[in-house]
Amino acid sequence: MGIMRLLSPVEPMARRLALFDLDNTLLAGDSDHAWGEFLIRKQLVEESTHRARNDEFYQGYLEGELDIHAYVKFTLSPILKFSQEQLNLLHTEFMREAIRPMILVKGMQLVERHRSAGDYCVIITATNAFITAPIAAEFRVDQLLATELELLGARFTGNISGIPCYRAGKVEKLERWLAENNSLQLNNSIFYSDSINDLPLLEKVTEAVAVDPDERLVIEARERGWQTLSLRR
pLDDT tens, 171-216? Predict the structure, then answer.
């Protein structure tokens, strides 16, 4: 008579959570700032004043002092009266002219390696969802977490809906999303970012990777022993 062996049920291995910042990480530039320049080229705004204000907001972001509510209002104000059809056409042109030239080949390859490994890929960005949703689709990620926009009917109000996906808000937004997707965990995660603004999330993940990091993140990565890589060289 053979020996009967009782096998314990095997728990399926949880998918690794691969998180990617977008601007200046997967892109060779900032999509929010590029949107402002695109509006100038389309002559939808006055050039000198819009560029000065756009540059001022961007500098505030780099310094970790961005008023994201004011920036979203500024970003959307020229298009608030546009229909959804007009917005779609405008964004198609924006993708073609401004975004695709900024997509880093190595950034696309990095996301694809994680997808091929079976990881759950998420772009998590402070930039609003109107600008970033088509970009996330280009990278074929599983999920986009971005700053969401308030709608009145079918049109944007210029206000943020919910938590801005910025600095500590990025962590809060992610943790709320994970609570609804409990097969994914921060204790099985990796996060790629260029910015000191993402330090709160970099501190939370299992593996933090500084990608072409800004000066302050270079120092943090060195002190904490985090991996540093370039997608531009």
Answer: 999 999 999 987 899 999 999 999 999 999 999 999 999 999 999 9
Domain segments of the chain as ranges: 17-229
Q: What is the pTM of this model?
A: 0.92
Beta pairing class for 17-20 and 155-160: unpaired
84: left (phi over 0), alpha (psi -120 to 50) or beta: alpha
Minimal CA–CA distance to 102: which of 66, 139, 74, 62?
139
Q: Which amino acid is at 148?
A: E
Tally of CB atoms within 10 A around 112: 13
Give ∠ CA 177-179-185 in degrees, rounded to 5. 90
Residues 6+ apart with CB under 8 A from 73: 158, 159
pLDDT in tens, 144-161: 999 999 999 889 999 999
* pLDDT tens sequence across 29-88: 999 999 999 999 999 999 999 999 999 999 999 998 999 999 999 999 999 999 999 999
Give the architecture-level CATH label for domain 17-229: 3-Layer(aba) Sandwich (3.40)
User: What long-range pairs does 110-115 form, CB within 8 A, spacing at least 24?
Assistant: 110/20, 110/26, 110/192, 110/231, 111/18, 111/20, 111/26, 111/139, 111/140, 111/141, 112/140, 114/16, 114/18, 115/140, 115/141
pLDDT of residue 181: 83
Residues with a catalytic annotation lie at 21, 23
